[in-house]
Specification:
- The protein starts with a helix and ends in a 6-residue tail after the last helix.
- It has a nine-stranded mixed sheet with strand order 14-13-12-11-7-10-9-8-15, with helices on one face. A six-stranded parallel sheet has the order 3-2-1-4-5-6, with helices on both faces.
- The chain has 16 helices and 15 strands.
- The protein has 405 residues and is an alpha/beta fold.
- Helix content is 34%, strand content 21%.
- The radius of gyration is 21 Å and the shape is globular.
């Protein structure tokens, strides 16, 4: 354990506001609102960003926080916790350093864009004993939580299949006008965008992918000739529902080498089968999960508060029939149906006290592994590939809540 952690024991953290830092003040910087609550348990005291715009935005939004472009300055500032919100391909680069500095670390999903980088984060957390939390906020989204509650209650019996269709209606604006469009930064959108859904599939089925295959294509956006270097802008500067149809998009990233439609199949370690389908040029934007068990199935129609989860548990021979039960999706305050504030609250509690969490570094690594190997399969003929196992001692450590050693 590092000297810094010893200098700031849990008993002291529990009696004052946590001093929290943020590395990367870009797309997910909105999380600061749920952290910065002086006098209520936590305060953002420093932000580190390598870009002038990121530093300016941080200074404007959190005037009381110190702002720097030097990570070493942040590492030495006596923080109690840190959020790593950089672009995905820099997660390990930063998180390994914050963990080595003994700072309880929130790492945005996905852990990173390669399996080696993801494994380096877990190995560092294990070796140092520094607490690691991964920002899979969909484990707090009402639609997912309620589907899991139905499954855990035995409503549909033992889960045997999970199908997810992801209609990414904003794909052109969200992923094909900036760094997301390049393999060098994301590996693939099956990983970068799909990490959420792969994790949800694993959580609902209570198993991790052991074998994966995939197909896909750059079917639409690769043919669009209107290109622009958008490094001087952010997604909010160009996003518009008027950017339709997809074939008439403009100002796409100069380099586009990720697929805009992908389909992957998974065999889980408990025998369940799963599929994940992702399309970035649909008119609508939502996720549809179908979970089939030995006693019925559930399926969500919409994923926002007020939408419904349908439950079928009776046999019928009349084709489509009304479900036996309709469960209304709950509401919540904050982003992603209230998931973001719950995510941050859980991290801050974990940074103070440790203990069990809804999110899981092992599960986060499993979603990266499935996404990485799916991209490899997709680009090499679609054959099935085996997922490399995580060392048993790391699985045990994280599954037990990262106990002090």
């Amino acid at each position: 354990m590092t000297d810094l952690v010893e200098a700031v024991p849990d008993r002291e953290r529990s009696t004052r506001d946590l001093r929290v830092g943020i590395v990367g003040f870009g797309l997910r910087a909105s999380l600061w609102r749920h952290v910065h609550k002086p006098g209520q348990g936590s305060e953002v005291v420093m932000v580190c960003d390598t870009s002038e715009r990121g530093r300016a935005d941080a200074a404007a939004r959190i005037p009381t926080a110190a702002v720097t472009g030097d990570l070493d300055e942040l590492l030495g500032s006596g923080l109690d916790a840190v959020l790593v919100l950089t672009p995905d391909n820099r997660h390990a680069e930063v998180a390994v350093q914050t963990l080595r500095a003994g700072i309880p670390t929130f790492c945005e999903k996905p852990l990173d864009v390669t399996l080696d980088a993801a494994d380096a984060i877990l190995a560092t957390a294990f070796e140092t004993g520094t607490r690691l939390y991964v920002g899979h906020n969909m484990r707090h989204m009402p639609v997912v939580v309620q589907m899991r509650e139905l499954i855990q209650a035995g409503t549909i019996g033992e889960v045997k299949a999970v199908w997810c269709r992801h209609f990414v209606g904003n794909g052109g604006d969200y992923y094909f006008k900036d760094w997301h469009a390049e393999r060098a930064n994301t590996t693939s959108l099956l990983l970068q965008k799909g990490a959420h859904d792969i994790d949800v599939i694993h959580w609902l089925a209570s198993g991790y992918t052991k074998r994966v295959s995939a197909i896909g294509d750059l079917a639409v956006y690769g043919d669009i000739t209107s290109r622009r270097d958008n490094s001087d802008r952010r997604m909010g500067d160009w996003f518009s529902l008027e950017n339709w149809p997809p074939t008439e998009q403009t100002d796409l990233n100069p380099v586009i080498d990720v697929e805009d439609i992908s389909m992957m199949q998974m065999v889980l370690d408990n025998g369940a089968l799963a599929s994940y389908l992702q399309c970035h040029f649909t008119p609508d934007y939502w996720r549809n999960y179908t979970v089939i068990g030995t006693r019925g199935r559930i399926e969500n129609f919409g994923d926002n508060p007020g939408d419904k989860i349908h439950v079928w548990t009776s046999r019928s021979q009349d084709g489509f029939v009304e479900p036996d039960q309709k469960v209304e999706i709950r509401d919540g305050d904050g982003g992603h149906g209230g998931a973001d504030p719950l995510l941050i609250a859980e991290f801050l509690r974990f940074a103070r006290e440790g203990g069990a969490t809804a999110t899981s570094p092992v599960a986060a690594r499993a979603s990266v592994a499935a996404g990485v190997l799916a991209a490899q399969s997709l680009r090499t003929g679609g054959g099935a590939l085996e997922i490399p196992a995580l060392p048993a001692e790391l699985v045990e450590y994280f599954d037990n809540g990262q106990p002090a050693r």
